């Protein structure tokens, strides 16, 4: 009870920090859509099979998700460096822009080839998530140095919750009647497949809007708060937070 009371007292005394966490949550909700691959995959692969390459199968979606995860891990060290040099707002905007552009451009690449989708919705998407994720985790810990665990739990929770939110949005747009795929495991309904490119344009627009609003709230605390911090959040702390999210 004492610990909860201390957390509540800290929150009341740090209204500006709450706005920063709110902004980080908005961004993290969009970055967490890296986990929507399982929901979006059947529609994406069905579209490619029907329109571009009949040799593409459901197993090929694994490589897109693998590219996203590899991209997410690849630039985390660089994301940490950028966050220290440029600050969380600009770093968050850079990562968010890369991710949203990768998503929106898939509207075009999905009509070209599977490999281009792998590049835009796989690699580029993942690289953007990597940079933006680091900035949102680090800034929260700076604002609430005595409650880093709670702040990490909230921001990482938003990252995980993002897939739940956007799974519903994707399904409502692509398949509002919840039509099941045929016995071969793929969709052949033209009404559904025609919406597949559009879902990337729609998602990219929603992501960019939420990210822009969120990043406007995100900034480092004043020096008085930083000086009160026992230690600056280290890359190892941020890394451990990312590992907890994976678990």
What does this protein structure show overall?
This protein has 247 residues and is mainly alpha-helical. The model has no long low-confidence stretch (mean pLDDT 86). The chain is built from twelve helices and no strands. Helix content is 78%, strand content 0%.
Concise account of the structure shown:
This protein has 247 residues and is mostly helical. It contains twelve helices and no strands. The mean pLDDT is 86.
Tally of DSSP helical segments: 12
- Fraction in helix: over 70%
The biggest beta sheet is recorded as: none
The beta-strand count equals: 0
| Order of helical and strand elements | HHHHHHHHHHHH
**Beta-strand proportion:** under 5%
- CA radius of gyration is 19 Å
Structural class: mainly alpha
How far do the termini sit from each other? 28 Å
Please mark out the parts with pLDDT under 50 across 5 or more consecutive residues, or reply none: none
Mean pLDDT: 86
Principal-axis shape: elongated
């Amino acid at each position: 009870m004492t610990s909860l009371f201390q957390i509540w007292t800290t929150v009341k005394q740090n209204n500006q920090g709450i706005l920063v966490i709110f902004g980080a949550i908005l961004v993290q909700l969009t970055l967490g859509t890296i986990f929507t691959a399982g929901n979006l995959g059947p529609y994406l692969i069905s579209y490619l099979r029907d329109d571009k390459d009949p040799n593409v199968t459901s197993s090929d979606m694994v490589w897109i998700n693998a590219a996203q995860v590899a991209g997410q891990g690849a630039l985390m060290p660089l994301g940490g460096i950028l966050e220290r040099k440029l600050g969380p707002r600009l770093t968050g905007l850079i990562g968010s822009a890369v991710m949203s552009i990768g998503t929106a451009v898939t509207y075009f690449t999905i009509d070209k080839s599977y490999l281009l989708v792998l590049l835009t919705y796989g690699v580029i998407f993942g690289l953007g998530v990597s940079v933006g994720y680091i900035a949102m985790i680090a800034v929260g810990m700076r604002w609430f140095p005595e409650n880093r665990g709670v702040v990490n739990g909230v921001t990482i929770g938003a990252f995980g919750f993002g897939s739940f939110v956007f799974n519903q949005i994707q399904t409502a747009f692509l398949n509002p009647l919840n039509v099941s795929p045929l016995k071969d495991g793929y969709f052949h309904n033209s009404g559904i497949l025609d919406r597949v490119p559009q879902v990337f344009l729609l998602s990219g627009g929603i992501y960019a809007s939420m990210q822009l609003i969120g990043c406007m709230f995100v900034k480092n605390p004043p020096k008085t708060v930083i000086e009160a911090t026992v230690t600056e959040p280290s890359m190892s702390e941020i890394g451990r937070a990312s590992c907890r999210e994976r678990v």
